[in-house]
Amino acid sequence: MSSTNLSRGSANRRNFMKASTLVGAAALGPVHLLAAQNDLTQDKLNIAVIGAGGRGGANLNGCSGENIYALCDINKSTTAKVSQRFKDAIVTTDWRTLIDDPKIDAFVVSTADHHHALVSIAAMRAGKHVYCEKPLAHTVREARLMQDEYKQRKGEIATQMGTQIHATGNYRRAVEIVQSGMLGAVTEAHVWCSRGISSVDQDLLPEQPVPETFDWDVWLGPAANRPYNKSYWSGGNLNWNRRWEFGNGVLGDMGSHLIDLPYWALELDRPTSVVSEGPEPDPVACPPWQQVTWEHPAREGDGAHHAACKVVWYHGNEGMRRRAEYLQPKVGSDTDIGKWGIGVAFIGERGVLVADYGKTVLSPSAGFADVPRPEATIAPSLGHYKEWIHAAKTGGESLCNFDYSGALIEHNLLGNVAHRAGKKLQWDAKSMKFTNDESANALLTKSYRNDWRV
Predict the structure, then answer these.
(1) Do 71 and 196 meet the contact criterion of CB atoms below 8 Å apart?
(2) What residues have CB less than 8 Å from 72, skipping those under 6 apart?
(3) pTM
(4) Tens-place pLDDT, residues 188-224
(5) Quick one: which of 230, 229, 228, 248 has its CA closest to 238?
(6) Domains and CATH numbers, the chain
(7) Which segments in the chain show pLDDT lower than 50?
């Protein structure tokens, strides 16, 4: 998608939020911001749950007021437990058997990262509503495809990425502060997560017998074939997410939640460059720490205005050290940056806003003491899952739809490509390629095993 089209979408998003009030939200522009009194009395959706344990269990609970029509998990032990709650649900280990079922209205996708786009795109093409865990895709190319597939069906299907924090009040208040102009022009947004990653001791693990209750071939899906070993998947996200073949590390995971805030507040478009600092690239393992910088050009017109700005991401011990070294002098004694395990710092010409999931701090505190906070103009959410369900039933659109979240995840995953390429990359979003390193373009996508492909 061209940057011009995305700018128009961002402008409509801002115009809608400004027009919304706490007592309700009208259907202005392409984004339907939902207020708590909207009626949800329509018939229940028939939902297929793909991945029913771990995060999948949480997402299942979030949608359990609808009709859970099908349960899919590669671990039969998981579906055996969950099906005790939903005794009439179809049970399978292979999501592909469900795509063409005309009785299914919607899919909830909570697999490992390397299946996200495959399931979601197949479901969208079948005309189904889709909720997908973060990150929305495993590669930059998949993120763009997710966005494009949804845009072709906008108004016909509802989509939502699993960034639950987007629906809570503190993020909305931070967006309002930034967009009110309290900070002046914001030129930097620093985002961090203290989490690191354990090392990957063996590239290929020794073969173990495949349990009768486990569908190993489906769990591998598009990844390269290899003998079964429980240690590839056991422990969930914090285990398999360490490997490029299955996940995208801390940036792919927590960046989906945290970079969401500056992407929303600053109405960012496609970046023009990206560079990642960290340990030497590993062909198998995601990095234990990173400092990634994206550059965004100034943008005016279509209702969206921001100065040229950069977004900087940090994770791991070395990332936390660099973050504190840079930010602590900018906030002085107003807050101890070292006590913020996650957070976002907006640096503007008049001061700094530091925010996380539940609090905000303005610095210098003396300079903002007599400055009133902006009025709340972004309507409260129905709730993260209810937004999506409401949109599916009304033809509306959730805030974390795949148009918005596809662009966000494309932005984030460019940081991992830059890490693996080991250099600063110039990004041409319209042609979807790097202009200064042809070899890095190969990292925008991946190889798919057998018939497992988008």
Answers:
(1) no
(2) 48, 49, 50, 51, 52, 79, 91, 92, 93, 94, 95, 98
(3) 0.90
(4) 999 999 999 999 999 999 999 999 999 999 999 999 9
(5) 248
(6) 3-163+382-399 (3.40.50.720)
(7) 1-41
